[in-house]
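Standup notes, structure subgroup. Blocker cleared on the flavin-adenine dinucleotide input:
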Amino acid sequence: MSQIAYLAPTSADEAAAALIKGGATARVLSGGTDLLVQLRAGRLAPGLIVDVKRVPGAIGIRQEDGGFVIGASTPGMTIGEHAALEKAWPGVVEAVMLIGSTQIQGRASIAGNLCNASPAADSAPALIAARATCVIVGPSGRREAPVEAIGIAPGRTSLAKGEFVLEIRLPPRAARSADAYLRSIPRTEMDIAVVGAGVNLTLDADGVIADARVALGAVGPTVALAPDAGAAIIGTRLDEAALARLDDAARSACQPISDKRGTVDFRTKIAGVLARRAAAIAYGRARGRA
Amino acid sequence: MSEVMDRPQTLNLKVVGTRPIRPDGADKVTGKATFGADFSMPGMLVGKIKRSPHAHARIVSIDTKKALALAGVKAVITAADFPDLASEEYEAGESAANLRDLALNCMARGKVLYDGHAVAAVAATSSSIADAALALITVTYDVLPHVIDVEAAMEAGAPVLHAHLFTEGLETKPDRPSNIAKRNELMRGDLEAGFAQAEVTVEGRYTTAAVHQGYIEPHACVAAFAPDGQCQVWSSSQGQFMVRTYCAKILGLEASNIRVTPTEIGGGFGGKTTVYLEPLALALSRQSGAPVKMVMTREEVFRATGPTSGAVIEVKLGAKRDGAITAARVVLKYQAGAFPGSPVGAGSMTALACYDVPNFSVTGFDVVTNSPKVAAYRAPGAPISAFGVESAMDDLARELGMDPIALRRKNAVRDGVKAAYGPTFRNIGYLETLEAIADHPHYKAPLGPNQGRGVAVGFWFNVGGESTAAVQVGEDGSAVVVTGNPDIGGSRASMAMMAAEVLGLPIEKVRPIVADTASIGFSMLTGGSRTTFATGMAVTQAAQKIVVDLKRRAAQIWDVPVEQVDWINGAAVCLDAAKADKGDLTLAALAAQSARTGGPIGAQVSLTAQGAGPGFGAHICDVEVDPETGHVTILRYTAAQDVGRAIHPAYVEGQIQGGVAQGIGWALNEEYVFDSEGRMENAGFLDYRVPVASDLPMIEPIIVEVANPRHPFGAKGVGEVPIVPPLAAVANAVRAAIGVRMTDLPLSPPKIRAVIDAR
Ligand SMILES: Cc1cc2nc3c(=O)[nH]c(=O)nc-3n(C[C@H](O)[C@H](O)[C@H](O)COP(=O)(O)OP(=O)(O)OC[C@H]3O[C@@H](n4cnc5c(N)ncnc54)[C@H](O)[C@@H]3O)c2cc1C
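Run returned:
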């Protein structure tokens, strides 16, 4: 019968070394809400589990250079309770807080959500729209990569052997900026996004959108930025015409599949709807800050 | 006072109708209750099942040699370890079964009939060894074409599941086998003439998906086969006697050699009125000589147990302009799953049960398909036919410009009316239930944009049947109530309350227990909404016998004729004025002296309860539809139901709310999804979407009480009626909100958005 070894290293170097040594069947553990479920379901048979939660920096939230640094293994509940973070990045926080339920929130982390590499990962669209980056550590040291570079296909990441995500970094917040995330699920919770839309925007002093980023989840093999969707509302006050262009651009960015959770047609239409609605929420929030 | 009450006691009740804490409550909320998977024995092995990956295939061979050779494997079984039974019908309350089919469903022989069908089982010293052993069993299949859709299965060229199955109920005996196991028909009057009289007709074709009961506790049991042939089973089921009988038949054992102890049950809803694991665990235990525990995973529960039928329902209604229905034609096609026995019979009988229709025909088809054999699910069959009929009634009301409650009132059955399914209704509370929703503020509350309101009604027979109860009085004056009915809906509380009422004891002094098959007389399983009615009747009569005995004992102590003794508030009172100074003799006082008055105090009653009162429910549902996402939000829900008499109103309300919640799930999101190979794609609670708490508003129950004269306190069955109306109540509300009739359940967001786009 297969045996699983478990390590909980207390330094990044130790963790990287263990992962290299563990080889192909070594797995990083943060909250375990994906990993342990997959293991129990027999979809994974790891030989080694490396719990990175004791690595310094993996848990906790701090402000640095005007931005935020979130330990990549920090549980959702801790993120949801951070008032300053919520004020600056309401969209990112609401996306993280949508993951699972109260019980899941006690464990589920951003690193796990991104590295599980599901196209439906709820935190990813909001983080990508926010220009968030990942601090990745591994055998050859430390590097930083944008969130959209992590997932490369369903269940696959760009991380090299021995690498893991230590931190998530959010840039300094410009004035008159806000973000929002919405997802569509058949129920009201405990479900996987059929479509997710994150919008992050900044207004100029006159209330005109100066910068906008839109990212969509569950409508392609990876969560991706939809540059045309962002461009569609820049220079506008989010009037009807701008919203219609946004809807169009968001739908054009979709390359979804039909499966038990939704059809191509439905997913595409809903991407347009959610992009519009998330943009309206973000715009309202940003104006509230003007 | 006569010895046995001849009409229900509805006045001066002290316990019945109150809301005490349930006797099993503390155990459950503190996590101490012992459910099926919690029971263990020393030296116990783990049993697991090898299941078919094909929806339909011939089993060419099964090679178990490697599995048997694996260290730690103690037994491997296949169909060869069970007797090849002859076809024989067995009646057990709600779970009539063909024993051969039952056995073949537990373990496939020669052919697998659905994805998940058991083909072999192992017992090993650990879970991982059992898993490894399953992987070492080689099954060679000859894959056959499969059919799951009910109408496709009825077609002439469809793959035939059973070469021996010839449609029953046809005028001429068919000459070739078919997947249509049975055709049944109910008729009255002259259908053609009825439609000719009609000034308005409506017609519709509706479909429902197969849905699972969704109980939280997966099936689990422990079985121990002793060398002397005495067997014990501990399992979670709706009836320990049902488990005993089925195990005996499937294994060819004497029922008297099997003792079944019911564990606590984590939901059944009808789905635990049959066996899946117990016969296999017994066979594994027999082969290995050790106790064997089997616990299903959720995936196994979905793939191999439950569900209820997916169906096609065709309805045509004709009415006069004043709303009087002149004719109704209903055609029902129900999936049975792998073996005959869909609930289409009950679906047919209930379809028009709420209405007094002069001319009708209801035709039902029981159709086998390559999907798990259906099991009973709360009012089996009734929600499906009601979905069609109540949707059509809603269209009829709209067509007539009539209020939907008024239309139902106009055609309502009432006392003295002969029901569509045969008997004449007496003491029914249907009109009262309709009045209750018509008068409720909900019915008049304003609605906003994209919101709609739907109304639907429902019926269920409720059953009685065989039950046994024993009441024993302890030396301290407390009482134990022993029954043979697993408590799936708060029935222990009701049993204790009825005994407490008769004995005059506070509820805390009465301890209800559910006993094993060797410790109490036979009882039919907990199903058909029968326990509070039938077993409650046995409990009440046993308590009444004790009161008679206590009065005799008091008379003996006081040396007065027994007529001079009454039983008031839990004590014997002497009516003889000359001896009034004796004071009262409480139950505790009499119990303390029992040795001198005839020995221990106790009584047992076994009976066949008749006169279960049929139940009616009327529901109002408000929804809001998001026209862009197709999402339906249930805004408000009110459910009125005639329950005869609510013994414990809180648990009656809980039953109503639970039934509605399940009905809403059925209406909105639940469905079995199969891939092109006939494999279930959503065998888990992530993608099989039962409602979560945040999906539902507070469901407001309205208890209507029109006493059932045949029950000592007037009770009727409660648990099944509330799941009948919601499918149509939700669909009718969606119709009102979006202006389009949705006929195919579930009303999931993609379907609604597509309909809105096409509007
Ligand atoms: C009941 C339930 C509901 C759920 N609901 C949602 C939902 O609504 N939305 C949603 O998006 N997800 C949902 N999920 C999935 C899951 O909870 C999230 O993806 C969660 O964020 C995973 O985080 P974790 O810390 O538990 O990850 P883990 O399970 O620990 O890890 C997940 C994957 O990431 C890898 N990993 C973990 N940490 C790191 C790291 N630091 N560096 C590199 N790789 C790492 C692991 O090896 C594994 O492959 C749900 C899960 C459950 C069980």
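Discussed briefly. Residues A 27-35, 37, 52, 72-73, 98-100, 104, 107-109, 111-113, 115-116, 121-122, 159, 164-165, 190 surround flavin-adenine dinucleotide (CB under 6 Å).
Next: hand off to the docking folks.
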